[in-house]
Amino acid sequence: MLKLTDITKTFNAGTVNQKVALNGVSLTLNEGDFVTVIGGNGAGKSTMLNAVAGTFLVDSGTIEIGGKDVTRLSEAKRAAHLGRVFQDPMMGTCADMWIEENLALAKRRGKKRGLGWSITAKERAEYKEQLAQLGLGLEDRLSTKVGLLSGGQRQALTLLMATMNRPQILLLDEHTAALDPKTAEKVLNLSDKIIRDEGLTALMVTHNMKDAIAHGNRLIMMNAGKIILDVSGEEKKALTVEALLEAFSRVSGAEFANDRALLS
Prior knowledge:
By secondary structure, this protein is an alpha/beta fold. About 35% of the residues lie in helices and about 25% in strands. The two termini are about 30 Å apart. The mean pLDDT is about 90.
């Protein structure tokens, strides 16, 4: 479903601020894979997600989604294949529009639109049913402006919007990092449910080692723009934070230096 082949990306090339963000990254996700991505600051995690999303074009290498080469497609054209939830709960939704209006925009993304009533009674019933599955009471607040929701409610809504049209790839970019621990756990469990029920292929970047171990069927660790560890199946289930830190030191030859990841 997703294939990265030897992709590279260098920012500010030829200047004193040159930064090699991706250094020959190759990765293949089969349909239904839920891969968590862990690594320290500057490891290349979010850069890899942005490369997949088309936020910028890579310097070399190829990116394929569902067997189609999208390496040179713009972010807008690539969006038809992707669903994405950002770290900031304020992104991904329109604060001044109602909940049902945000859902309607997400549902009709990439489709032809005519001149008719914006939301039909049938669509409204469908939105209420989908919102009820979140367990947050939002199904009774369709005409509430999204800007009035809490961070957790807004992130759950964004997750629903990102998966309404069953994207080929779901990108979760530290989507619980800005939430309190209790709310973060609820959003993560909701992510698990949607990915499992819809059979989605997902890539989730996180700083939290426990979350990286507990969620998904596969874990990759990045360092200095490279994938240095790739575990799945029973090997992943048996992982502990201590074992992950030991593996990082063994493979990279250095200690994992990231207080945010360790403390979380």
